Amino acid sequence: MSSVTNRSDTATTGRIVLGQNNYGKSEVRVVKVIRGPEQHEIRDLWIDVALEGDFRAAHVSGDNTGLLATDTMRNTCYALAKEHLVSDIESFALALGRRFLDAGPSVERARVRIVEFPWSRLHPDGRPHPHAFQRGAGGNRMATVVTTADRSTFGAGIEDLLVLKTTEAGWEGFLREEYTSLPETSDRIVATVITASWDYDGCEDHDFDRLYNGVRDKILRGFGDHYSHSVQATLYRMGEAVLRAHPEVSRIHFSLPNKHHLLYDLGRFGIENDNEIFHASSEPYGLIEGTVERAG
Amino acid sequence: MSSVTNRSDTATTGRIVLGQNNYGKSEVRVVKVIRGPEQHEIRDLWIDVALEGDFRAAHVSGDNTGLLATDTMRNTCYALAKEHLVSDIESFALALGRRFLDAGPSVERARVRIVEFPWSRLHPDGRPHPHAFQRGAGGNRMATVVTTADRSTFGAGIEDLLVLKTTEAGWEGFLREEYTSLPETSDRIVATVITASWDYDGCEDHDFDRLYNGVRDKILRGFGDHYSHSVQATLYRMGEAVLRAHPEVSRIHFSLPNKHHLLYDLGRFGIENDNEIFHASSEPYGLIEGTVERAG
Amino acid sequence: MSSVTNRSDTATTGRIVLGQNNYGKSEVRVVKVIRGPEQHEIRDLWIDVALEGDFRAAHVSGDNTGLLATDTMRNTCYALAKEHLVSDIESFALALGRRFLDAGPSVERARVRIVEFPWSRLHPDGRPHPHAFQRGAGGNRMATVVTTADRSTFGAGIEDLLVLKTTEAGWEGFLREEYTSLPETSDRIVATVITASWDYDGCEDHDFDRLYNGVRDKILRGFGDHYSHSVQATLYRMGEAVLRAHPEVSRIHFSLPNKHHLLYDLGRFGIENDNEIFHASSEPYGLIEGTVERAG
Amino acid sequence: MSSVTNRSDTATTGRIVLGQNNYGKSEVRVVKVIRGPEQHEIRDLWIDVALEGDFRAAHVSGDNTGLLATDTMRNTCYALAKEHLVSDIESFALALGRRFLDAGPSVERARVRIVEFPWSRLHPDGRPHPHAFQRGAGGNRMATVVTTADRSTFGAGIEDLLVLKTTEAGWEGFLREEYTSLPETSDRIVATVITASWDYDGCEDHDFDRLYNGVRDKILRGFGDHYSHSVQATLYRMGEAVLRAHPEVSRIHFSLPNKHHLLYDLGRFGIENDNEIFHASSEPYGLIEGTVERAG
């Protein structure tokens, strides 16, 4: 190891210091096959690990003692999958987080984020296939568990849930000023790719599978069960439905890109376009983000 | 318009000539809402147009006379959707191709490729929602229609169909030589993202919807109904099943990336890994491509 | 507009409330050509606008009064580009932010983030071309300006800056535990895609172009001017160099994916691999993130 | 190995046969460091291998004898890099192709495609850094070598070369018909991402580095040295310039997406837009493709 003397020197002058920092392994792709007697199950995960703690020596003086290698984090994800990836991803994330706290003497906080990709069993002739699957729809499930010596917090989410309604939506009564050219409409397509993430109150004994499915169901219902005055109003309504149905959820955050569907001007060709033919535009897009939570 | 004299001069020296060429509009995103009395239907298309013909003047002497603008092609896709996007995408592609042949005096061959994205109706409380949808699974449907003054040819396909089987697959008995290090296995995961494209014999009166669903079904069955000696063997088997069931299909081509799932070495940590824990690797990947067709 | 009565009712029960929220337009692609007498200049921007303020009525009761449409934000970006996109992107972002505060009566905080893509003038025969360019290297420039009625804060950054060093880097002396399998090395490739963002102290009179180039230069020097004990140590060293050289910078944050280059095992084929032949792996990757700042 | 009897049976009925097929390894990422006395050089490649030959037994009867594993192809890329990646990528591709022909008894045709990514040496204080680099601009270099027992053919190319000119381009005099709405213009931005591929006449003794740089230079000059009546006309002009300058090039193919830059309508806000402010649109896009070649 080469000398770090002058690096240490410079680090202590000018009152320049290390602030918040974290490191870890991203996109660890763990697949587990559960080989049951009748049929196989599959778990398909993408794991991101981020550790926080006292890593100053590594940053400032090149001292790696006590630093867990990110390669070790990767190995750990696979090694613990055998015994600990047996139910919901929240439990697996917790097991991983605790392990990282134990393994790394300077680790104070482990954040483990897991995305689980859906697979649907094939059903040739209407019968379930014992071991063949296709990628499922309905978005990817996420869990984020943050673990410290004292406690763990549990969050969950859904991403890549693409939804669309063809009517019962408008955009009216908005502010008109110098640079406003958009006409009002009481009938438009609303399409978005839902990313939602929510926090559970503290307990690790939740039935996370039931809760995930419940929240997902409320989101989908809330998307379609009303006339939407705006993406904002639909965001709030979906969040409200989730919190009303699930007291375990303390807050939910949505990120909703407005995938604009623009009525195509066919009138110039003598063709009437009565909300039938649209151009789906990918950019630019409106982005509506917000949190619905419990007061106090 | 500036002079093109010297450009024409240079173009005729040295026997440098224009070879095969085509131009068109890509990624035209047409969405149509069919507003039925009980419920809405949605069609969500991505259209690529490519025209061939005598476009030498435009290339060599800057003469755009008779050249259809790609912007006009875009307008045409939307304009014709009103009347002609009423059943399968093959029929719509044909209508577009014929229009381009009619509209462009120097167009000799129109290739229209349409991808249709699947949407699944939401079912709150088990009842079909009249106008709300989520993105469906099972791959995107493709159609490619090539139209000339004399005839049209019809092709179809599927893309982005992600499938996986957890067992009943191996890779054994292959050649071993100087740079071979891979062990043989009689039990491995096979995962791939199926892209398949097939040709129909000439008639435009096929029931293209029925055929698409039939071919897709045979592919999925063929993926799971046997012990796979190799991706090549599974490719052939799927193709054979399609051609056997559907005499209208003259040939089918598959492009099958082998999404490797590598058994993770847990033995070094004293953990047995009996085909349970895998690393899903995205690169490099095997790529197996081939055509199954009728002889003669 | 349909009645919102029952929606307002539900919104006030159960103490469910709207939390932090923002909305805006993303990926507005503004290109400006400055048509000078000798040559043209080009500005190529991607703008994200996010507004915060009192938008409760829109969320809770479907009342859009006073809500600026995201389409209006888009128009504003283009409209103001004529007069206000004349020097650095920080100044343009500030002009946009002030406009949004003025235009939207309920807007309290405007965040405008601009990415500027680099273009390099072509030089046929060594002479600058008056109006032809190719995409440049060296990363995209970012600016983020947050404006309120009282003050504005200025941040800048760089993204997509891909760098690599072939030696003078190691990874030694790290913790070894149960799941550690990685060997130590005192000679490895380090490659990363630098994303850095930094904050300026408050003044809007900075020479932002000079500062950007200075920070970028310090980062590139800091990447290559030492033996790297770890990505963490290099992160800190680059940050320290920036803060030391530029008192206007109060803190800098780096996000550094470790694009692993793995020595390929050629020994099994009887070929020596003396740090010559590597596999560039894209996943999983280490991710090292941290802030270097001034104390107090 | 399970029985393949019934599979062989079905394969011989109905005259269903295996057509064209190929297999190989894609996205093999080989990085080589040349450790010179003064400074290091880096080669960064992405290799795609596709083999053709008599692979019928593997497809039809599950017989893998004599089949080269794609994993072996990967190993071969790394193993041969030590000795054979010493000059241009064409030579390395040829060495790989010959090796695959030798190694696989049923291989009849090896296609090796290599993409080389550019790296630029860092120059702190104006002096070349011995071992630190940043990703370069100007597109990725490609080579495609097809090798059979008798002969090899050499092709080259460039991809991801993003160019733009701000003027000296128009789109006038084109056909106007029922669905044409685009106005004519004699002053527009032309922007494209050039993908070009060209064939060399047979000899393997070409100075491929010189030729690549020459062709690239002619393309860039040809892009900017004239008033462009259309993308087609510019395509032809670039191709003509390449063939005129380099007799070793027998033909060149271009694929040119027209990255539309649309004049933004500011007149409705009382702002004149004299070809200054544009919206850069990513979809849909015109796609102009064509080959320029030598007659006969």
Quick overview:
Chain A is of the alpha+beta class. Chain A is built from six helices and 13 strands.
Which architecture of the largest domain in chain A per CATH?
Answer: Roll
**SS-derived structural category of chain A:** alpha+beta
Quaternary assembly:
homotetramer
Q: What count of structural domains of chain A?
A: 2
Question: What's the CATH class label of the largest domain in chain A?
Answer: Alpha Beta
Largest sheet composition of chain A: 8 strands, antiparallel
H/E topology pattern of chain A: HEEEHHHEEEEEEHHEEEE
By DSSP (H or I, 4+ residues per run), the number of helices of chain A equals: 6
Chain pair with largest interface:
A-C, 91 and 91 residues
- Strand percentage of chain A: 35-45%
The CATH topology of the largest domain in chain A turns out to be: Urate Oxidase
The strand order across the widest sheet of chain A is 2-3-4-7-8-9-10-13
Count of DSSP E strands of chain A?
13
Distance between the termini of chain A: 54 Å
Mean pLDDT of chain A: 94
Low-pLDDT regions of chain A: 1-13
The fourth-level CATH homologous superfamily of the largest domain in chain A is Urate Oxidase
**What gross morphology of chain A would you assign?**
globular
Q: C-alpha Rg of chain A, in Å?
A: 24 Å
* Helical content of chain A (DSSP H or I, runs of 4+): 25-40%
Descriptive report:
- 4 copies of one chain form a homotetramer.
- The longest helix of chain A has 17 residues, at 208-224.
- Helix content of chain A is 26%, strand content 38%.
- By secondary structure, the first copy, chain A, is α+β, with helices and mostly antiparallel strands.
- In chain A, a hairpin with a 3-residue loop joins strand 7 and strand 8 (152-165).
- Chain A is globular.
- In chain A, the strands form 3 sheets. Chain A has an 8-stranded antiparallel beta sheet with strand order 2-3-4-7-8-9-10-13, covered by helices on one side. In chain A, strands 5-6 form a two-stranded antiparallel ribbon.
- Chain A is built from 6 helices and 13 strands.
- Chains in contact: A-B, A-C, A-D, B-C, B-D, C-D.
- At the A-C interface, helix 1, strand 1, helix 2, helix 3 and helix 6 of A face helix 1, strand 1, helix 2, helix 3 and helix 6 of C.
- Strand 12 of chain C pairs antiparallel with strand 2 (28-35) of chain D, so a sheet runs across the interface.
